[in-house]
Amino acid sequence: MPITVILDNLIASGKIPPLVAVFVYQTGERNRELGCSQPFSDFAAKELVPWVRKNYRVSSKPEHVTIGGMSAGGRMAAYCGLRHSEVFGNVLSLSGGFEWWPGALEERMDEEPGWLTRQFVTAPRLPVHFYLAAGRFEHWFFPSSLLTENRRLRDVLQAKGYTVEYAEFSGGHDPVGWRGPFVDGLMALAGFKGGR
Fold first, then answer.
1. What are phi and psi of 131, to 5 degrees?
2. Distance CA 136, CA 181 (A)
């Protein structure tokens, strides 16, 4: 997905304000790092964002910081919002893998799908805004469905009083389907409501 080109075009057309975008290289430990990892969320909040603030002229307000990702990255973005709302005021999740549970990668069935959603159920409401999007054809995960779990997280967040924008696109788990929701999500979280 040509994210840098998309960002340049959105900024040039005035659809989002100028911003600093930071991309985190994923190592061979991607599944562990993005599996609701406390060390990874602490790294993002306590090392990465302070480094960006030190080296670039950016806002220190959480409502001006968006963390986002696709698939496992979308799940991790939501986890970072849960753990570090003092840093991340906005979460952009595209096809977030919310069917995940501890032990899912080892195929352990001692926990049921939707672990992160249950954490939001029991946690107090936080000052975080969400944009969630999922494809209507993302029914491929057993024993749960990525689409169903995205809808479930949306419902839980709304019931807790969060500001949530939710979209479904006609597609599956791929960058082609994520382009439109990526643009819409950035504009929504930045407070820009203009069309594409």
1. -125, 115
2. 13
